[in-house]
Amino acid sequence: MNVQDVSTRVKRTFGDEAGVQVTDQDIIRWINDAQEEIVNSNEGLMETTGSADTVRDQDIYDLPVDISVLRSLKYNGLRLKSMSFQEFDEYLSGYGTTQYATGTPEVFMVWEGKIRVFPKPDTDLVGGLSIYYIRRPTPVGNLADNLSVPLAYHNAVVNYCLQQAYELDEDYQKAQTKKGQFDETMMKLNDRNKWTSREYYPSITVLPEDA
Question: How many Å apart are CA 96 and CA 195, to the nearest integer?
Fold first, then answer.
């Protein structure tokens, strides 16, 4: 389903096919809100793996531009330990010098949208960093754009948009009905697609099954 499909269904159900009260721009904005709402309630829908080349003697790397939650980071297949800013600072202070040797990175922290690893890599590696993360849903901007949430959630997007349309029309009874339908769909689909990880950016907890 693309934005045009959602727009047609919303306007027809609402009774405003001419788009006098409910415009395409309204619907585009609501679709983006709906996708964010869906992913926030089930982040597993947007699980993604990215990579970054590592450079000898370079310790700072960019996070993916579409990242929402960082799940895990590996260097050359080895999992790195996540640290807070304070933990990382104390860890480096334990070496007693500002000049650190290069080697195989073992720990990392995230600060201002950048990954910092330690020690600095001692070699160049293509795809040296593997980044496991939850990405943000791709925003829609025009009628030809496709929704980025899975097909099973498309009816929920329509119901979310209808809820907003009825609230705009101050028909709160119908708005509540559509909210109930949206919430019911979300509960059913999220139960079906449950995921068990409890790792949240920027701190990563090792689960027993990962040990």
Answer: 42
